[in-house]
Amino acid sequence: MRVLVAEDEPRLTLQLERALAAAGYAVDTAYDGDRAHQLGEAEDYDAVVLDLGLPRLDGVSVLRRWRAAGRTMPVLVLTARDGWSEKVAGLDAGADDYVTKPFNTEELLARLRALIRRAAGQADPVVRVGAVVLDPRGATVTRDGEAVPLTAHEYRVLAYLMLHKGKVVSRAELTEHVYTQDFDRDSNTLEVFVGRLRRKLGAGLIETVRGLGYRVPEA
Q: Is residue 79 located within the same domain as residue 163?
């Protein structure tokens, strides 16, 4: 799962980047509105954390441009003020939720998980497929109740496939959602991660749909 953090305060950006990475996300960052707009237009994100007070191009304008261009990724806006007008402006521009600074990082993570879950049509906070349970709240995976250790990339691949269970996910789409923008993206390595996941969680969990990609069955 991949997230864009658009925030101009370096310390806060680093804090969010570390918290999101620890929660299992691939994270890109932007320090001004122009860069945020460019990344949001060009890249596929599972969610965006967007500060409304960005320099060069404010967050509301960025969001309006994304929505006008048909970009539908969930957006959680950050506002530095408690005034209702700024929150309303963000929501009216197409935001899905907001958090007011200063905020609790755990609350932000919980709100982000909820947005991603709803966007994928997943109501339950945990995702179950047979004996395998993925819990985004702690970035944990169990099989038959036993914890299964995964690398960061293995977890991202599994999380994206399980959140979109029943859907055929192409290698290109999966690559877009598990690697950061500056990572050397080689779709062939996905086969390595899928192979490891099958060995750890069972060969039947991830199906290969010849010529199309991968699919995790509904149950």
A: no
Report the pLDDT value the prediction gives residue 83, as an integer from 0 to 100. Answer: 67
Q: Are residues 114 and 205 both part of a single domain? A: no
DSSP line for 61-105: HHHHHHHHTT----EEEEESS--HHHHHHHHHTT-SEEEESS--H
Q: Give the span between the Cα atoms of 124 and 95, in whole angstroms.
A: 22
> Domain range spanning residue 135?
127-215
Q: What is the DSSP string of 23-44?
A: TT-EEEEESSHHHHHHHHHHS-
Instruction: Note whether 131 and 93 are same-domain residues.
Output: no
| Cβ-contact 134, 158 below 8 angstroms | yes
Q: Is the pTM of this model over 0.85?
A: yes
Query: 144 and 165 in one domain?
Result: yes
- 14, 15, 18, 19 alpha-carbon torsion, rounded to 10°: -150
Phi/psi for 98 (5° steps) reads -145, 155
What confidence tens digit (pLDDT) does each residue in 124-134 have?
999 999 999 99
What are the residues facing 76 on neighbouring strands? 49, 97
Q: What is the CATH number of the domain that holds 210?
A: 1.10.10.10
What pLDDT digit, counting tens, does each position of 91-106 carry?
A: 999 999 999 988 999 9
Closest CA to 74 of 24, 39, 40, 25: 40
